[in-house]
Design goal:
Distance between the termini: 89 Å
Number of helices: 18
Strand content: 25-35%
Structural class: alpha+beta
Length: 952
């Protein structure tokens, strides 16, 4: 007799619904096995044939950190395309490469942490490159398209499982793990949540990642909005993955909880399902979970809820159905990597991302133009922190050589050529190295590239009589790099020695940046990665030890100024193209916000030299963020984010007119630093931020972008019916070349019971039109898009009245306008006699911030820095009258309550400060009012106000 094969368990049965299969698998896992699934690196369960699983694979604009991959433009560049179809196709290509790469290297994950849907509220944010737009609707439209491409079109199985970053209201790197974003309810609902919500509701999102920061005094990793909002938007199980190290931050830097067991329990109960902490070592996280279980802070049901959500994602990825997974890699799909189609798509994306900001007729360049291409980025193809390793590379210089011929293109990088003279008269010298077989550092891939060590296999710097001439670049604020003649940057490895060893600046802590500090008749050279000065020792050039006071005083010998080289190249040309911008690893990056919109002084020098040389000057900005630049006297200005592997070819094709530029700005370009709010002011309404509320004159407005063609708009029609507004109009290419136009529809509310946006994007469409071609553009806009969050009643409300519909090619270039009158719900006064006033539901405020009412939920309001703050609540209905008031407060200070513009009617203070910020007391006082009034509440001291109630 032969033994029969035992039947497969139900969790292996592809005929059953995923939910039933998850139930079966959960029933087979032991409590300890379930607990082990809570860490980012979930181990295998061999007795059940379950493989190990890792959450998290960076894939923002290509598969990142895992070696060579197709590199598409930065996310902000993809945002500039305003093209959902393109974003979907890019997402599809990235997910195909992730599958193909995983077949060769199982470290490549399919739970992709992308895209970033944080809104580009403030242009000085260091991670501006990661987002799509300052507008929530444009952001959600593009994020939805990208996640659909990442997910795939199969109704059951997913090619990859996208996780949106970073929940919530996260736009600053300074003190990012301890700073709190004060977000009033209108901003929360109308701005920050909106970008996430529409993308989640579209059904192609597997989860979210909370951000490092706090919102209203509470860390995002214990946010009640995860359960109160996020999980209500879809019936799918959403996997919430912590950001790296954030669970430990709850105790270590934020001091929000006293113990890690309490913090871990609170995060898990709030909705965090996977803990990204302590790298691949899960032992610390597991010990905290077990400790929380032992103390009764968690239940097995809490653990099971998180594990269930992770398993739901794994089933959708086809892990348990290798014979049914349509995206399982086969002989045919194993080569879905660096395909001709992906290379063409990378070029298309880079071309569509170019924005023409100004053109006085200089562009496009004639075929016989003699071009000088100059600038620090003229021969660079920069990567950022979330890039893969380049397989192909195209710089602006290479693109122009290819397009116009090397004999018609001159080049000057514009670096300062320098030697560094030591105190004894010798000069820093780079020894030759036999490095011919070396691969680019990091090309092998790393789960965390921050762990890649600096190179020690090359000889350290020494000194000799002549020295080496270095290329010095000042990237702004005195942060500079020094490059050896062989193209390698000076860097410091773990042994403290200086070597010419880095292909590019990079790493979590950049080891290739320095600062020259005036000292007597020379300079000290400070290495910024270690914070220590450089010294010359008998065994080589190194950074001083922490306890050493042995800094070398260097003489800076300038052999050539960058502007002189630029002037020479420009003198030979008809047009000079100045390529300026940033290195994504320096001055504006993750962990580091910018301090100014201005171009670095070094690049301003080069631009002035090009202008002074005489030829027509084109400024091509290649950057991760906007600049405030003086465009006077420039023949043309273009902007592109760092465009990935095809960036140079794309820029050259646009300059030559092979492609008409069709990109549009995804965020406002402000004219001056004075136009910007404080980076920590998250109140876009009260602070008059973004194109929605900014009333000044921008350098270039949101949605702006020029073309080599011209376009006419006409035949605007609008109709209100069936719960939506139908809008249509025609767009005609009235120019001589085929080109793309991005038609944009905005609304401006004519009814104003509360401040509404100056104009607000409702819809857009990018279309390619041949000369003379006309297309009819139609949009169906639901009436809900015209509503606002009514803080008086805690819900969305459509206000009745006129709404102007504005059609054009930017937020300021309006070509057509009409008005529709919408029915809605009239404004009603606040029913304060019945409900009182939630402190955070103010209409206006000054000098206050929103904080956490408790560690678990709720908001309160407190004066900033224990000073004086004021809150205004309009149209409060006291009915037939009240005679008393009760305020719920914690801390110490005074509450003053006044009606309209009058003096205080009630002044209330606790006898003594409460014992803690969450120890609330109710203070009662006499208060007489009837009818409808504005209520003003003044807060003094460190007092927290949660609620004001009325009685009598």
């Amino acid at each position: 007799m032969t033994a029969s094969t035992p039947p497969a368990p139900p969790f292996r049965d592809p005929r059953l619904p995923f939910a039933k299969r998850v139930d079966d698998l959960m029933s087979r896992l032991t409590p300890d096995e379930k607990t082990r699934f809570l860490h980012q690196f979930a181990p295998a369960v061999e007795r059940l044939g379950i493989a190990a699983f890792r959450t998290g694979q960076e894939a923002l604009h290509g598969v990142a950190w895992m070696g060579p991959a197709t590199v598409f433009p930065q996310a902000v560049g993809l945002g500039a395309t305003w093209n959902e179809d393109l974003l979907r196709r890019v997402g599809e290509a990235v997910s195909k490469e992730a599958r193909a790469m995983r077949a060769r290297d199982d470290r490549v994950g399919l739970n992709v942490w992308s895209p970033t849907v944080n809104l580009l509220r403030h242009p000085l944010w260091g991670r501006n490159e990661e987002g799509y737009s300052e507008d929530p609707r444009l952001t959600s439209a593009l994020a939805t398209a990208y996640t659909r491409g990442l997910r795939g079109a199969h109704p059951v199985y997913w090619r990859t499982a996208p996780v949106l970053k970073h929940w919530l209201a996260h736009n600053n790197e300074r003190d990012r793990d301890t700073s709190s974003s004060s977000v009033r309810p209108r901003v929360l609902h109308e701005y920050d949540l909106r970008a996430f919500r529409a993308t989640v509701e579209a059904g192609a999102v597997a989860g979210v990642m909370p951000a490092y920061n706090l919102v209203n005094g509470r860390p995002n990793h214990v946010s009640p909005h995860l359960a109160g909002h996020l999980r209500t938007w879809t019936e799918e199980d959403l996997l919430v993955c912590s950001d790296a190290g954030a669970p430990s931050n709850l105790v270590d830097s934020e001091h929000y909880f006293a113990t890690h067991e309490e913090a871990t329990a609170a995060a898990l109960r709030a909705g965090v399902d996977s803990f990204t902490d302590h790298g691949t070592d899960s032992s610390t996280t597991l010990a905290r979970v077990r400790g929380a279980l032992d103390r009764g802070l968690l239940t097995e049901a809490d653990v099971e809820a998180a594990v269930r959500r992770q398993l739901s994602v794994r089933f959708r990825l086809g892990e348990f159905d290798p014979g049914h997974d349509p995206y399982a890699v086969t002989a045919d799909t194993a080569t879905d990597f660096d395909t001709p189609e992906h290379r063409a798509l990378a070029l298309e994306a880079a071309e569509q991302a170019v924005v023409l900001l100004r053109n006085d007729g200089v562009l496009p360049l004639a075929p016989d133009t003699r071009v000088a291409v100059v600038g620090l980025l003229a021969d660079e193809c920069k990567l950022d922190w979330y890039s893969g390793t380049l397989i192909h590379r195209s710089t602006p210089l290479e693109g122009l050589y290819e397009r116009f011929g090397a004999d018609r293109v001159s080049f000057a990088e514009g670096v300062d050529r320098v030697r560094l003279r030591a105190a004894d008269g010798s000069h820093l010298h780079v020894l030759p190295a036999d490095d011919s077989a070396d691969e680019a550092h990091g090309s092998e891939g790393a789960l965390d590239p921050a762990l890649l060590a600096g190179r020690t296999d090359l000889p350290p710097l020494t000194t000799d009589a002549v020295g080496t001439e270095f290329a010095l670049t000042d990237w702004g604020e005195g942060v500079l790099t020094l490059r050896a003649p062989d193209g390698r940057y000076l860097s410091v490895a773990g042994d403290g020695r200086l070597r010419a060893s880095a292909d590019q600046p990079g790493g979590w802590v950049v080891q290739e940046t320095f600062r020259l500090e005036p000292h007597g008749d020379g300079h000290l050279l400070r290495h910024l990665g270690t914070g220590r000065h450089v010294r010359v020792a008998a065994d080589g050039v190194k950074v001083a030890a922490p306890d050493e006071d042995a800094a070398e005083v260097f003489g800076l010998v300038v052999t050539e100024r960058g502007e002189d080289a630029v002037a020479r190249a420009a003198a030979e040309a008809d047009v000079v193209v100045v390529v300026a911008g940033n290195d994504p690893h320096i001055n504006g990056r993750e962990t580091e916000d910018r301090t100014t919109l201005r171009l670095p002084a070094h690049q301003e020098r080069l631009l002035r030299a090009a202008r002074a040389a005489g030829p027509a000057t084109v400024l091509a900005l290649v950057s991760a963020y906007p600049y405030a630049v003086d465009t006077e006297g420039l023949g043309a200005v273009l902007w592109s984010a760092h465009g990935g592997q095809a960036a140079g070819t794309a820029l050259a094709r646009v300059l030559a007119g092979d492609v008409s530029p069709g990109g549009r700005l995804p965020q406002t370009w402000y004219a001056d630093d004075a136009d910007l709010p404080d980076p920590l002011d998250y109140d876009v309404i009260g602070g008059r931020q973004t194109y929605l509320y900014f009333g000044g004159a921008p350098l270039f407005p949101f949605g702006h972008g020029l073309s080599y063609a011209s376009f006419g708009y006409g035949d605007l029609a609008a109709r209100v019916a069936d719960g939506r507004v139908s809008v249509s109009f025609t767009v005609t290419n009235t120019g001589d070349v085929t080109a793309d136009e991005v038609a944009q529809l905005y609304v401006r509310a004519g009814c104003g019971s509360v401040p509404r946006p100056r104009r607000e994007l409702l819809a857009h469409r990018r279309s390619g039109l041949a000369p003379g071609e006309t297309a009819r553009v139609s949009f169906e806009v639901p009436l809900s898009a015209f509503a606002f969050w009514d803080v008086a009643h805690g819900r969305w409300r459509l206000e009745p009245g006129p709404y102007a519909l504005l059609v054009g090619s930017s937020s300021e270039d309006v070509r057509l306008e009409t008005t529709v009158v919408l029915d809605g719900e009239p404004a009603a006064p606040r029913p304060v006699r019945e409900r009182g006033l939630a402190a955070a539901d103010f209409d206006e405020q000054s000098g206050t911030e929103i904080v956490d009412r408790t560690r678990a939920a709720g908001d309160a309001v407190t004066p900033v820095a224990d000073r004086t703050g004021e809150l205004l609540y309009r149209d409060c209905d006291f009915g037939s009258g009240v005679t008393g008031v009760t305020v719920s407060v914690a801390g110490g200070g005074t509450v003053e309550i006044a009606l309209d513009g009058g003096p205080p009617v009630a002044v209330l203070s606790p006898d003594a400060p409460t014992s803690g910020p969450y120890d609330y007391v109710d203070l009662d006082g006499a208060f007489t009012a009837g009818g409808v009034h504005d209520v003003r509440v003044r807060l003094r001291g460190s007092l927290r106000l949660a609620h004001v109630g009325f009685s009598g």
